[in-house]
Amino acid sequence: MTRVPEEVRCLLMRGGTSKGAYFLADDLPAEPALRDALLLRVMGSPDDRQIDGLGGAHPLTSKVAVVSASADPRADVDYLFLQVVVDRPEVSDRQNCGNILAGIGPFAVERGLVPVGEESTSVRIRMVNTGDYATATFPTPGGRVDYTGDAEISGVPGTAAPVVIEFPAGAGKLLPTGNVRDVIDGVPVTCVDNGMPTVLIAAASLKVTGYETPKDLEEDLALADRLRGIRLAAGRLMGLGDVSDTTVPKLTLLAPPRDGGAVTTRTFIPVRCHTSIGVLGAASVAVGLRIDGAVGAELAAIDPGSDRVRIEHPTGFLDIESSLGTTPDGLPSARRTAVVRTARKIFDGTVFPRSAETAPIPPQPQGGHR
């Protein structure tokens, strides 16, 4: 019988605009059910305040990264992202997280999984959830990770060292439904997947401006009902099946830019409105806006001579570099996607999970990784 540890080595990090607990895979039980039950105890779920664990009472601060050396010749490390639900005994592996991804390279260096460069280090990462790849490059002067720097990202106070993350073109379909536009419940949408399954919706088509605060949007019950129906239908159209118990696809409402960017966004994850926007969701938005006829393309202010797209969100902006190509059969495809994020080590030590006797047992996972 597998022994579940009573204490676990853990590195708490901010990655982008999220915060999560980073673990070596070898420090956790290999069986998903035992691992997930342990992580619920570590994070303090289910509880709206997560008062008895590391979680911060919000999806953006209730995240976990599980990292190991990779056997894939195209990668140095494997990264499994787990979303620990705040108020239910659930742990989901149905999506990636591009913000937590920003901390994977530094974590790999901190744990000795990769050789470190004298000035900078590049780490090739396989994202286990989807099988996609990314390369993170960050400063390591003198052979140590330097978290200080002058890179600034919206939604995070102060500055830090830049982490440049580049994504190769994915092998999957950029337009999972095969259409540039679909209509769901009378609402035109574009379903796009450039690392994160995302549904683009013009805010005006749902009778909102797209400039509302996340709190105001979350309190609009009629809007929540419309979004729920659209998400369920889009999940089926995108080949994701029944998404009622998952956090993908994301829904992003689009409006004309107000602060010099390309477009204004409000993203749902899936019912909470994101206080910023996820990296991979923004990557899908950026390339989607470049597709002729896509929802939002007519709203966006994009410089055709530049790869950079500035995505406005509730707390600022996120710059994505993307370019669009075509497949041999003439369909649009993403050629290049890159983003600058930051990460910071908050603490490195041992976490003590709450007692197993007082913790709910999570449901058994359905299916495997996406």
From TrEMBL:
The keyword Isomerase applies. InterPro entries: OMA_tautomer-like, PrpF-like. The keyword Isomerase applies. Keywords: Isomerase. Pfam families: PrpF (PF04303). Belongs to the PrpF family. This is 4-oxalomesaconate tautomerase. The lineage of its organism: Bacteria, Bacillati, Actinomycetota, Actinomycetes, Kitasatosporales.
